Amino acid sequence: MGCARGSMRGDESRSRRLLSDPDVRRWRTNLSEGSELAADIYLRRLDMICEVFGRSHQDSAKLDAKSAYNFLVDLPAAYRRKNVEGSTIKSYIKPIKSWFLHNDIIISKPIRINLANKTPSLKHEKTPEPNELSSVWKFCNPQRQGHV
Predict the structure, then answer these.
(1) Residue 50 · residue 86 · CB < 8 Å
(2) pTM
(3) What angle do CA 49, 51, 54 make, to 5 degrees?
(4) Structural domain tally of the chain?
(5) Residue 11 backbone dihedrals phi, psi, to 5 degrees
(6) pLDDT tens-digit readout, 64-84
(7) What is the pLDDT of residues 7-20, one digit of tens each?
(8) 146 found inside a domain
(9) Fewer CB within 10 Å: C terminus or N terminus of the chain?
């Protein structure tokens, strides 16, 4: 199943394919009641993880609780081999757990992810100095400066 990773057109067509399933559409609609953005992210992550692990979302929805738990336990190890950070792995597990819950698959045991709350991409971030902020504001529309 080839796909155009990173291309908006590829993501949109894949999402449309997933949303053709009424159960996925129902799940996504329910998620969007909380956050439209989160619903879109969860939908893309569900599709990506199913593709990476070679199973359809329908197959995942039919797993028993033990098999679903084993899948979630195996997922971090698979992504660790690809050098994916713990915080990113955690963001992959949440949509799958949500999909399982939507399909009445209840995972009661914790899924341990080492360094799940570490944010390495923010390690070198700092609060901007006043002179840095003023240089940004120079280029802003005066009516929109409060949004920066």
Answers:
(1) no
(2) 0.69
(3) 105
(4) 1
(5) -60, -40
(6) 999 999 999 988 888 888 887
(7) 344 556 677 788 88
(8) no
(9) N
